[in-house]
Each structure stands twice: as structure tokens, then as C-alpha cells.
Amino acid sequence: MSDLLNKITQIKQNVLSDLSTINNADDLEQFRIKYLGRKGIINSLFEELKLLDKTLKAQVGKELNTLKNNTESKYRELLQKFSEKNEFRVEDPTLPGRVYNIGTKHLITQALEDIIKIFVKIGFKVYDGFEIEDEYHNFDALNTPEYHPARDMQDTFYLNSEGKDKRYLLRTHTSPGQIRVMEMHQPPVRVIVPGKCYRNEAISSRSLAMFHQVEGLYVDKGVTFRELKGTLDYFAKEFFGKDIKTRLRPSFFSFTEPSGELDVECYLCNSKGCRVCKYTGWLEILGCGMVDPNVFEFVGYDPEEYTGYAFGMGIERTLMIRHQVPDIRMFYENDIRFLKQF
Length: 342
Ligand code: PHE
What we know:
It is built from 11 helices and 9 strands.
């Protein structure tokens, strides 16, 4: 019998007696370090095994492996036992549940969805349009000639300078969507075009350089101004509530004739007149009118055969009225206390 074999028998005894004293995870960890650690007893026995004579190596090695395996499996058994206990301690059934904060849609998105629903209900289709447009679709085809002030650098974000190439820009309104739709489809067309628009504005409580609009367009034989008025009235009542008062006021847009603007009563002063409504009692929410025959010429519709109406509303402005938001910048500051209210 080799010395090593005697040692193994002795260690086996020690392991068993040590095991009987383990009461918790800390004891167990001490046990692991002592016997199974990298510098532990069992590894040192393996070092000794290397020095052994070949004839004995096989037999002693087998004993040593058995010791190692048994010690490891005991260790794992206890580890399981103690960690189960731990888990049980963590799962205190009297603790309150975890709170997961689920985000919601931004109120601009909610409003766009609401508006889309209102128009889809009466037969409008939705067209996406492009945020990057060319001068032709944003201005020329909308009967807005080169000398028109809206084309000024002061108002429009141009993406390249004038040259022999097309001049691109960030659309200043959703109206180029009208042109795109009419270029693609013959009448009847009945669409809304929701999306972002950009203007080089001084930032204030009433304007931002980026905002949202929803464009509407309906072209067919015999479309009248009265239908436009009826549709806008329907929209205002659905969106703001049955009791909302609106008024249609004459205005000018180069792509509609005649043109109008829809006002709703000022929410702040109940139409009595205040700073927000500039003492008029009314707030403007959209521009509209009958599509100018010149625009029909640009897209190849026969103005003798077809008439149509168009409108474009500002979403932020509209929401400021609906929710009594005093400053347009609040929509984009991402203050949770504000956003949470919607
Ligand atoms: N595009 C116009 C604007 O941005 C609104 C409008 C749309 C007016 C359609 C008439 C018809 O102010």
C-alpha cells in the first residue's frame, strides 16, 4: 500500500466529518475552498499522484478520482439546498409586486391617429408624402411662383443651392402631397396626408421650426364649397366636441380659389378676447379652399370637368386648443409630467 492511498482514506474521513458540520452557504464555501479549490487538498493529492510509480498510479488514481467525484457531488447537493433556501427568502409573498412603467404614444401621434380615424370614417384614404420635396412639388405645381415670398430662404430650409440640378427642400407644408396624389391617380381622389413640415421660424410659444400638418384633398365632378364647409364642420365636432363653435373666414392661398381659414373659439377667454387670440376671440386652425384650376393644369386634370377642395391643418395648434396647452414647445420638451397627462 502506498502512502498516498492511506492519505486518500484519511481525507475521505475528513470530508465526511467536515460535511456534517456545514450549516449554511458560508460553511459550504469554506468547504469548497478547502477540498475543491484550485489550491485545495484534492488538487494537491493529484500533484502527488504524478510522482507515483506507474504500477501504482492506475489503482491510486482511481481511488482519488472517486474521492474527487463524491466530494463534488456532495458539494453540489448542498449548494442546491442552500440556494433554494435563499430563493425562498427572496420570494417574500408579502412584498408588493414590481411596477413596470409602460410608455404611451406621444400625444401628437395620438392626435394624428384620431384625425385619421375621423376622415377614414367618411371615405378618405391616407397618403404619406415625402418630407424632402423638390421646389416643383412644394411650390410651382401649387401655383406659387418664383417671386412668391414663401419661397424666400428666410422661410424655407433648402437642401442644395440653385444650379442645374433640381432644388430640394424640407417641405414647408403637406400640400405637395396633393400634387403627388393627383399625379398618380385620376379623379375621384379623396385623401389625407399627415406628416412633419419644416419652416425656418423664430422659435416662440406659438411656432417651431418643425411641426405637423394634415392635408386633405377631395376632387371629383361637381365638388362644392358647401361640401368643404360640411366636412370641416363634421371634423371640428368630432375632434373638439359637439358644442365647439367654428367660423370660416375668407383668406388667400395661391393653390386655392376661393380660400378660407377655419377658426375655433378661443379656449382661454371663451371667445371674449385675450392675448393668445389677439383679442379676436378666435384661433385659426386650418387653411382651405377650392383647388385652383391652375393646379389642375399642372397635374393634367381638366378644370372644366373637375372641381375639388383642399385643406391643411396644423396639429400642434389644434392640440393647443383641444388640451389648452399654453406653449407649443411643451410638446417636444419630453417632460414626463406633461406627457403623462395624455
Ligand atoms: N398649405 C397651407 C398652409 O400650410 C394650408 C392649406 C392647405 C391651405 C390646403 C389651403 C388648402 O398654410
